[in-house]
Amino acid sequence: MEWNDPADIALVSRTFDAWAAAVIVKDRPLVESFHDDGFRVRLGERLLTKTEHATLELTVAVEEMSIISIDATRRVGNMLLVWSQHLIRAREVPPIPDLGLEGDWGNAAAAKAGFRQIEFTLWRQDGDQLKCMVFEARS
């Protein structure tokens, strides 16, 4: 069980940057490839699945998802726990009725200006790739 291994930090950095690039160009198969099949993320009162989260990410007009900092990592076998902070900026945050996201659910003004998102993510290493299993985020 290692904390803050430079190789793990580099791996999660590369993975996150590739995931962000896929979101920005709206490449659904690539976006989904970063998610474990059992993926869950909390959004308000809901837990979204892999498919629902990909829909959300591809519906929002994301212009920037960048790493501010990776604060800590801890490896446990093939699992990697990551505490990090990110800058998120989106041109538009439209309603997504199929997911129950109505009105200004994503705070469009903050999204346009860009906001800091604090995340805890749990990744599973699959060969040389990371698959996100779970994440919790707050602004």
What key phrases describe this protein's structure?
single chain; 139 residues; alpha+beta; Nuclear Transport Factor 2, Chain: A; 7-stranded mixed sheet; 4 helices; 7 strands; 30% helix
Written account of the structure:
With 139 residues, the chain is an alpha+beta fold. It has one domain (2-138): Nuclear Transport Factor 2, Chain: A (Roll), CATH 3.10.450. Helices cover 30% and strands 45% of the residues. The protein is built from four helices and seven strands. It has a seven-stranded mixed β-sheet. A hairpin with a 2-residue loop joins strand 2 and strand 3 (46-48). The mean pLDDT is 95.
List the helices and strands and how they pair.
Elements: E1 2-3, H1 6-25, H2 28-33, E2 35-43, E3 46-48, H3 50-59, E4 62-76, E5 79-90, H4 108-113, E6 115-126, E7 129-138
Parallel strand pairs: 2-7
Antiparallel strand pairs: 1-4, 2-3, 4-5, 5-6, 6-7
